[in-house]
Structure formats: C-alpha cells, structure tokens
Amino acid sequence: MTVVALDSIGDAYVSSGSPDSNYGTATSLTTYRLSGAVTMRALFRFDLTSIPAGATVNSARLLLTCSGVPQAGAGDLDVRALAADFAELGVTWANQPATSGIISPPLSAPSTIGEQRLFDVASHVATALGGILPVQLRFSDEAGGVTGINWASREHATPSYRPALTVDYSIASGPAVSVAVLASKTRRH
C-alpha cells in the first residue's frame, strides 16, 4: 500500500449573491445558505496524475479545516462530484460546473475555528485516477435556515489548515513465476 497526501491545486468559492464574481484568491472559502436568498459553495481541485492508472483506491479522504467563526445555525455538509473541471481564477456562480452526484456521506458543520472534517471520497477518486479531481462542498439542504462556515483555502496563512486529499492505494502485481518464464523464453531466441 502507498499513501499520498495531495494539496489542492486550485480552489475558490462561488456566490449566488454575486453571480459574476470570482473568489479564487480568497484565503477562506465560504459555504453559506440564507433561506433561498444567497447560497455559497466551495470548490476544490486535486491532481491525481501521481497515482498510477489501474491502482486500487483503498481509501481517500478530503480534509477541510474551519478557518472562521461559524455563523449560527446547523446543517450537514456533503461533497459533490463536478461534471467538469474549473479554472480557479475564472469560476463564478454563473459558470460553475454542474454537479454529478453526492460522493461523501453528509457530515455535521463544525462549531469552532480549527475544527476539521474528513470527507470520504474514495469512490470518486477511483474514477478520476490519472486526471484532475474537481469537487464541490455545500450544505446538503441549501433551502432552509441561515448558516455559514469559512474553510481554509490553499492560500491560507496556516499551512496545516489548507485543504488536503489523502489517498491510500495499492497496485496489483502479477506472480513472480510468470515473469521468470517470460524471461527464460526471451533468452532462448
């Protein structure tokens, strides 16, 4: 088994209240809901090209850290697959990629700065090996209540707060006997 820790190669948040604004250089990424009035979602990109094609993903967890005092209200958050990649310095609410399904079980919102959440995203990572993994963090129910959370971005001043994806994978290897047989056949010719 091999374990790799991958830093985000791009992140941003998008806001329905400012549909043409880009927040790709923000040090904190906001997830927010205000009863159908304003919604904010955080987007992350990870480069999976260092994991060999055909590898078996044993586990993959997206680690996010709360970087600002959460606003009143409670709610669960989930991670969703994005149907396409996005440009960190170009993504807005108006052009954000569509989602193609929930890829993590919902987790409760943090209540203090520095509190972390580990989202299980193994099934989606397995389908994206050899490419870029774009994902979205949002409240599971964006219609009800008022609540907001700031998450550290890759630009955050505290390195341990920055988003990370940890992937545990293994590579199947064939039996050693078959390699020896092929080698001996090659020498005879």
Give a quick set of tags describing it:
12 strands; 10% helix; Jelly Rolls; 189 residues; 8-stranded antiparallel sheet; mainly beta; 2 helices
SSE inventory with pairings:
Layout: E1 2-7, E2 10-15, E3 28-34, E4 38-47, E5 56-65, E6 76-82, E7 99-102, E8 107-108, E9 116-120, H1 122-127, E10 132-139, E11 146-152, E12 164-170, H2 176-188
Antiparallel strand pairs: 1-12, 2-4, 3-4, 3-11, 4-10, 5-9, 5-12, 6-7, 6-8, 6-10
Structural features, described:
The protein has 189 residues and is mainly β. It has one domain: Jelly Rolls. It is 10% helix and 42% strand. It has two helices and twelve strands. The strands form two sheets. Strands 2, 3, 4, 6, 7, 8, 10 and 11 form an eight-stranded antiparallel β-sheet that branches. A four-stranded antiparallel β-sheet has the order 1-12-5-9. β3 (28-34) and β4 form a beta hairpin. The chain is globular and about 55 Å long. The two termini are 37 Å apart. Mean pLDDT is 86; it is low at 175-189.
Q: Major β-sheet, in short?
A: 8 strands, antiparallel
Q: In CATH terms, what is the fold-level topology?
A: Jelly Rolls
- Portion of residues in beta strands equals 35-45%
CATH architecture: Sandwich
Helical stretch tally: 2
Radius of gyration: 20 Å
CATH domain class: Mainly Beta
Distance between the termini: 37 Å
Portion of residues within helices: 10-25%
Low-confidence stretches: 175-189
Chain-averaged pLDDT = 86
- Structural classification: mainly beta
Succession of helices and strands: EEEEEEEEEHEEEH
Number of domains: 1
User: Tell me, what's the shape?
Assistant: globular
Strand tally: 12
